[in-house]
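Let us work through a complete example step by step.
Step 1: write down the sequence.
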Amino acid sequence: VGTGTTARVLMLTAAAEIADRVGGLGIGADDYLTKPFAFPELAARVLALGRRSRPAVPPVLRRAGITLDPARREVFRDGRYVPLSPKEFAVLTELLRAEGAAVSTEQLLEKAWDENADPFTGAVRLAVLKLRRKLGGPPVVETVTGTGYRIA
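Step 2: predict the structure and record it as tokens.
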């Protein structure tokens, strides 16, 4: 099974020894069922594997009247939709994940930009400025002098 796939593997076999089961799970099987088996157990195991195959949905982040839904890539401020660029969305996500703690410019560069970002650039400051404008008032993105930014 390739990386990133949601397919699950259930080995259904007559090899019932512990070494066989451990080996099957060791080579990538998600479950192992030996013969003879009861059909209701097979059906239950297939359903359980199906539940596990769904990707985890990231939690909706909320703070200071802002609602950010990472799965839908949507942001609302006091119920009003706020269109954001990908960088602004990434910066806001990191600020909301910090739950009121200050996030350094370096951390924001690391999370919202690639590894080639210039640490001396004003890109974070510019993104925060645009984010503040788009979110509107009252202001919720605070500058923490000498540290970075936080959501009030």
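Step 3: interpret the result. The chain has a mean pLDDT of 87.
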